[in-house]
Amino acid sequence: MRIIVLSDSHGNFKAVEKIILRNSDADWFIHLGDGERDLNSFILMHMEYEQKIVRVAGNCDFSSLAPDKFVLHLGEHNIFATHGHRYAVKNDLDIIKRAAKEENCDIILYGHTHIRYNKYEDGFYIMNPGSCSCPHDELPPSFGCIDISPAGILTNIANV
To answer: What mean pLDDT comes out for the span 31-49?
Structure first.
């Protein structure tokens, strides 16, 4: 199973479109917020992807009806996805780890910082894919990829 993770597109519809179409064979696409309009525009133009897209609201997704967190159950694994602003991810990851543990999740996805993060720690696969449009880490715009197979979980961050 392949999951593509993107975040913080902030008005860059072309970045969203490029990532999703380039990875059209993925099983799921997760947008971690601050780009709901970009995602809505993509879905209006490519309705065939709608059932494979999960979204959460970011702090800049004003008047959004999307949830601020989402748990995706995938057999043995559960993904906790959120933008991150309500979990103080700019300070540390303790709050988001506690929330994921309460939801019985082993994969944590967050955005908000516009800085890539990809580690296995404290029993969690933790990923921030960075920003697909305006990164804050002096690296190119990026997105994440999660591959889940019987052999295990592989997480990676790629340039747009």
So the answer is: 97
